[in-house]
Amino acid sequence: MKRKIASIAFVLVLLFSFASSGLAASSGPGTGNDTWAPVQVHGNIYIEGNFINNGRSSLGVNFKLYRVTPNGDVLVGSSSTGAIVAGQYARLKIPLASNQPDGQYRLVLDSPGDFTVVAYLGYN
Fold first, then answer.
1. Which element (helix H / strand E) includes 121?
2. Distance CA 34, CA 7 (A)
3. Could you tell me if 91 and 50 are in contact, meaning their C-beta atoms sit under 8 angstroms apart?
């Protein structure tokens, strides 16, 4: 258990040192939506990191990216990891939206499976 915690902490440090913005970790068995705090980004926006399937079924994680506005959040992009084999992980960089204006963006993750996500929302 201590080795797993140390490994996750090390990965977080590595990811944070390369992150453009918004590092976050999520975990849970079919918890539904996991909403990340808004981050300031622009241009071509993506999520990059490790997606670990802790479950017993090959499933994926779905993403929806919203631009935060005074009149409410506006959906600007969506994507998914595709199926990740049960008990395995994938290191992925997934485009979410392109040519976006500078602003606050919120990411919502959704999966019926048990996933640990150690990733960040980046842009270029």
1. strand 114-123
2. 23
3. yes
CA–CA separation, 11 vs 15, rounded Å?
A: 6
Question: What does the DSSP 8-state code read for residue 54?
Answer: -
The amino acid that residue 39 corresponds to is V
Q: How far is CA 111 from the centre of its chain?
A: 11
The rounded distance, in Å, linking the Cα atoms of 9 and 3 is 10
Per-residue pLDDT of the chain (124 residues; tens, 9 = 90+): 444 444 444 444 444 444 445 555 554 444 456 889 999 999 999 999 999 999 999 999 999 999 999 999 999 999 999 999 999 999 999 999 999 999 999 999 998 888 889 999 999 9
| Dihedral, CA of residue 112, residue 78, residue 33 and residue 81, to nearest 10 | 40
DSSP strands (E only) in 13-113: 23-29, 32-35, 39-53, 62-67, 74-80, 89-111
